[in-house]
Write a structure and sequence with these properties.
Elements (H helix, E strand, L loop, with lengths): L12 H11 L5 H16 L8 H12 L3 H14 L4 H11 L13 E2 L6 E7 L2 E7 L5 E4 L2 E3 L2 E4 L11 E2 H10 L2 H13 L7 H13 L11 E5 L6 H11 L3 E4 L4 H10 L3 E5 L3 H8 L2 H6 L6 E5 L10 E5 L4 E5 L5 H4 L2 E4 L13 H18 L13 H17 L4 H19 L3 H13 L6 E3 H8 L13 H11 L2 E5 L2 E5 L2 H10 L49
Parallel strand pairs: 1-6, 2-7, 8-13, 8-14, 9-10, 10-13
Antiparallel strand pairs: 2-3, 3-4, 5-6, 11-12, 15-17, 16-17
Helix pairs in contact: 1-2, 1-4, 2-3, 2-4, 3-5, 6-14, 7-8, 7-14, 8-15, 8-16, 9-14, 15-16, 17-18, 17-20
Length: 558
């Protein structure tokens, strides 16, 4: 197209730029051509031939629809022809500019690794995906899901601290595996790693591994506590267990932030491999986390946002989950009661290091079993066990009912051995010695009232006041209160009232046999006789805070 009129000279600068834009075959060349011709008519023609207001408006509208680089060429022509002022041109361009839709921002998915129905995170063709069990049976695999208008997706593989199961292997186990065969394979796997105190311990450990895949229905998850000198295989055994357990993580530190994330976000099974766990917990002020973690529904509270004011400044963390402890220093009594204590025997045999790949194969099979059990209640344990050890043992007995009922007698035998060992330990405590003294003094006591002074005197027979083993009478009074004895006062003396049934129950609890000593005739004992009663553990089941301050209930007249 020739833009130069016959009676005009060479093309102006904006004519040439416009012509170049048109010759490039731009899709908007008609709009550019129209704009150029209108500008030339307005500039060169007489009043009768000038473009109408309607033509100018249409032209400006079309220019506003052009791409920026073409619009710039037309703008120059329009302003040079003086069709419209700079200010009016800018206003028209704003008014006529096409209304662009605001780009809808795709929200970043929320990383999530825990929700109802989730079997676990799995690898499928190098992607981390959700493996979900359907309530009616069957499996479903998802890359993400939406709930309440929010999108959730698995965490990236580099942020997952445990080995991830392979989806095809889990599906194969879902179709072909049997729990009794899997139980036997776990036993074989553990036998190769270390020497345990007995074959019954293998049953305990295998049941515990299964239990980590049933966290949703466990009321308690007792700790496996390996306590020994160095070099007995505690760490090796713990690593083998954690490789097969549900989302197992091995840590040598006690950091609250990590524990909260592992427990609440990942529902992880944690192996605490710490030389002195009790000491490290005390230094980090984290005793409540470990002491509560064994019980379902346990939460700990931390004030993280003090500026927000009451209630909103505090965050509650769900810290329940299975745990393993390996330590060279004995656990303090309160923590020890939440554990299955395991003392590794000496062995001259060489054991190989655990193979994580072998543990992962067991994990894949255990996940298939978890998928089948996910919506089922925990089996009836079939037996009620007394005490804290009974609380943590019954869920494992339920697991054995589900996978290997024939192993239950071996498990019961081991738990009875642990209970007996616990009674023997408690029988050496100060609380046990006080109960024993009360038992001796109750023989032949028809009134059922025993002066506190008599109990203190009996307890300290053969021990001088300057000895560290001497028990302060006020401490005796506090311990009697903590043990639950009813107290009273008569003839200006404090006494306790003894219920024979309660006393017999305490004797059984502390492993106290029938005493052979005769009771004291009066409280005015002037001679000290030698005694086999040692100082024992001064705390027993009572914490130091319960015994440290004088108490008027412990007043005695000596």
């Amino acid at each position: 197209m020739n833009l130069q009129p016959a009676d005009k000279g060479p093309l102006t600068s904006w004519d040439r730029e416009t012509l170049a834009a048109i010759q490039e075959g731009d899709l908007n060349h008609k709009r550019v051509e129209t704009a150029l011709l209108i500008c030339k008519r307005f500039q060169d023609s007489t009043n009768g031939n000038k473009p109408t207001e309607s033509e100018i408006s249409d032209m400006l509208y079309d220019v506003a629809q052009l791409p920026d680089e073409k619009q710039a060429v037309c703008r120059q022509a329009i302003l040079e022809s003086k069709i419209i002022s700079h200010h009016a041109y800018r206003a028209k361009m704003r008014d006529y500019a096409p209304k662009t839709q605001e780009k809808t921002r795709t929200p970043k998915p929320i990383r999530c690794a825990r929700f109802d129905g989730l079997v676990d995170l799995v690898l499928d063709e190098r992607r981390v995906r959700y493996l979900i069990a359907k309530p009616g049976g069957g499996l479903e695999v998802l890359d993400s899901f939406e709930k309440d208008g929010r999108k959730f997706a698995p965490p990236p593989v580099e942020q997952i601290p445990f080995f991830i199961a392979d989806l095809p292997e889990v599906k194969t186990a879902w179709l072909t595996d049997e729990p009794c065969r899997l139980f036997a394979d776990i036993i074989l796997y553990l036998e190769k790693i270390s020497l345990l105190p007995s074959e019954n311990h293998l049953v305990l450990l295998a049941a515990w591994v299964f239990s980590t895949y049933r966290q949703e229905v466990l009321p308690y998850s007792g700790y496996l506590a390996f306590f020994n000198v160095a070099g007995r295989g505690k760490t090796r055994t713990g690593k083998a267990l954690i490789s097969a357990a549900f989302r197992g993580v091995h840590t040598i530190t006690i950091r609250e932030a990590n524990l909260f994330r592992l427990s609440q976000d990942l529902q992880a099974t944690i192996f605490f491999d710490v030389t002195d766990l009790s000491g490290k917990l005390a230094r980090n002020d984290s005793e409540d986390v470990i002491l509560s973690r064994f019980e379902k529904g346990a939460r700990v509270f931390r004030t993280l946002f003090p500026d927000k004011g009451p209630f909103e400044d505090t965050v509650a963390f769900d810290i329940f989950g299975p745990s393993i402890i390996a330590t060279n220093v004995a656990l303090y009594r309160v923590l020890d009661t939440r554990c299955f204590p395991i003392s590794m025997p000496h062995s001259a045999k060489h054991f190989p290091a655990p193979d994580p790949a072998e543990g992962l194969k067991l994990r894949e099979r255990l996940l298939a079993w978890r998928a089948k059990q996910l919506f089922k209640p925990l089996a009836d344990p079939g037996k009620i066990m007394a005490g804290r050890l009974g609380d943590i043992a019954m869920p494992l007995r339920s697991i054995l009912q589900e996978v290997k009922p024939e192993a239950i007698p071996a498990f019961d035998e081991l738990i009875e051995e642990m209970q007996q060992a616990g009674r023997e330990d408690k029988s050496q405590s100060l609380a046990a010695r006080i109960v024993q003294a009360v038992k001796i003094l109750s023989i032949g006591n028809l009134g059922g009232e025993i002066p506190v002074s008599d109990i203190a005197t009996k307890l300290n027979q053969g021990i001088g006041e300057e000895s560290k083993a001497f028990v302060n009478p006020w401490k005796v009074g506090r311990l009697l209160k903590a043990l639950g004895f009813k107290r009273g006062r008569s003839s200006k003396k404090r006494h306790i009232e003894v219920d024979k049934e309660d006393l017999e129950s305490m004797c059984q609890e502390y492993g106290i046999e029938e005493p052979t000593e005769t009771p004291l005739e009066t409280s005015q004992t002037s001679q000290c006789h030698s005694s086999t009663d040692g100082p024992g553990d001064i705390s027993g089941d009572i914490t130091d805070s319960q015994m440290s301050l004088p108490d008027t209930d412990g007043e005695v007249t000596l």
